[in-house]
């Protein structure tokens, strides 16, 4: 559902930003939020736990790119993700994450389908589906996060993807798109 500006009108999407993510169900999101804050401190986890499919921009027109994301969602289907254990991108990038034991292949398929249209991914690293637990913290805290979360396990059914826009200094949901259906 589009955000509403102070004037009551829907703000125009930022032309140079477009993100597509998988959000966590509320109970899992709350649990992950607590874990993430235990590593980075209260109030530090301003971005909810999620799995990024694309962090980038529209190649030409935001409207055209958003319609492509909608088309990918309509042609998709729900799938299951199993989060199991931890990994890290260190020393390349200071990130500790939860592994996708099941569902990583489907995330890669969605990522590739999204990039087959007018959407550009703007990261310096090869796409690897993951859920960030700790990022850019002291090495001791990063090691603690990796060790403490190593036994973590959760499953979720992915039924939608979120189309995001970067506006007013942060990412905001533009639309939640049901996989295999209409808007959710």
UniProtKB/TrEMBL annotation:
Gene3D superfamilies: Cyclic phosphodiesterase. This is 2'-5' RNA ligase family protein. GO terms for molecular function: ligase activity. Keywords: Ligase. Signal peptide: none annotated. InterPro entries: 2H_phosphoesterase_YjcG-like (IPR050580), Cyclic_Pdiesterase (IPR009097). The keyword Ligase applies. It comes from Arthrobacter wenxiniae. It holds the Pfam family 2_5_RNA_ligase2.
């Amino acid at each position: 559902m589009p955000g509403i500006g102070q004037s009551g009108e829907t703000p125009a999407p930022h032309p140079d930003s477009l993100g597509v993510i998988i959000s966590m169900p509320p109970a899992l999101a709350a649990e992950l939020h607590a874990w993430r804050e235990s590593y980075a401190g209260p109030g530090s986890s301003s971005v909810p736990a999620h799995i990024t499919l694309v962090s980038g921009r529209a190649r030409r027109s935001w409207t055209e790119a958003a319609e492509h994301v909608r088309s990918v969602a309509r042609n998709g289907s729900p799938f299951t993700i199993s989060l199991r254990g931890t990994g890290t991108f260190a020393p390349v990038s200071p990130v500790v994450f939860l592994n996708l034991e099941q569902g990583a292949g489907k995330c890669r398929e969605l990522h590739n389908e999204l990039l087959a249209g007018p959407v550009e991914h703007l990261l310096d690293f090869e796409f690897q589906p993951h859920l960030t637990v700790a990022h850019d913290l002291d090495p001791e805290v990063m090691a603690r996060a990796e060790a403490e979360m190593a036994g973590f396990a959760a499953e979720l059914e992915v039924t939608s993807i979120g189309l995001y826009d970067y506006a007013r200094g942060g990412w905001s949901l533009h639309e939640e798109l049901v996989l295999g259906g209409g808007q959710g």
